Amino acid sequence: MKFFIDTANLAQIKEANDLGILDGVTTNPSLMAKEGIKGTEAVMQHYKTICEIVPNGDISAEVISTDFDGIIAEGKKLAAIHKNIVVKVPMIKDGIKAIKWFTDNGIKTNCTLIFSAGQAILAAKAGATYVSPFIGRIDDSGWDGVDLIAQIANIYSIQGFKTEILAASIRNALHIIKCAEAGADVCTCPLDSILGLLKHPLTDIGLAKFLEDAKKFA
Ligand code: E4P
């Protein structure tokens, strides 16, 4: 399973990349706004900087147009920033048409705001590189987000779809483990959730004891 970090914060992207286990980055308009990025030029420059920090990873950059022509024009500009840009397109009718166009023209896509298996089938039919089911938001609404990952994984396996399942809206370390079990190809996670995987009290207790005992022969 690939690990992406779900943020537009450059310090956090650097920290995750320094761990050596980072395969990419996802952003969205809310995450960009949180970093105080303003204006098209600044947004484009920010994506360029992210691509330079993670030179070998896929970097999702989301369009804000919702009509076919707008999505295509915006997606082309984003894709021109760097070879690793993945154009992130919302799961709407014009979005599906645009994903098909990008696929036919060799541009990678991430179909975002996926909340059902039907939407994931449509995105795969259009040739999306990734689909992003929003696990945490589904859990927040009283359904089980991980169940959707398992359902999509089963369908893609039966049907032979090549689209990768990118589990998004991850809230904690347990989500990552459950998504790995359910067949996600990628988890995009906040830094805290990735670092949460490191933690176990018995590791801390065990290390403290080893270091204490090591003083006896140091
Ligand atoms: C990433 O691709 C998604 O936009 C992101 O994971 C959504 O997360 P949220 O539900 O925490 O906003």
Polypeptide structure, described:
The chain is an alpha/beta fold. It contains eleven helices and eight strands. The chain has an eight-stranded parallel β-barrel, surrounded by seven helices. Helix 4 (68-79) packs across helix 5. The protein is globular. The protein starts with a strand and ends with a helix. The model has no long low-confidence stretch (mean pLDDT 97). It binds erythose-4-phosphate. Erythose-4-phosphate (E4P) binds at residues 6, 26, 28, 112, 132, 134, 136-137, 168-169, 188.
Summary, kept brief:
By secondary structure, the chain is an alpha/beta fold.
Instruction: Round the mean pLDDT to the nearest integer and report it.
Output: 97
Shape: globular
What proportion of the residues is helical, as a percent range? Answer: 40-55%
| Run of helices and strands | EHEHHEHEHEHEHHEHEHH
Structural class category: alpha/beta
Instruction: Report the radius of gyration as a whole number of Å.
Output: 19 Å
Biggest β-sheet strands, sense, barrel: 8 strands, parallel, barrel
User: Could you give the count of β-strands?
Assistant: 8
Oligomer: single chain
Distance between the termini: 40 Å
Strand order of the biggest β-sheet: 1-2-3-4-5-6-7-8
Bound molecules: erythose-4-phosphate
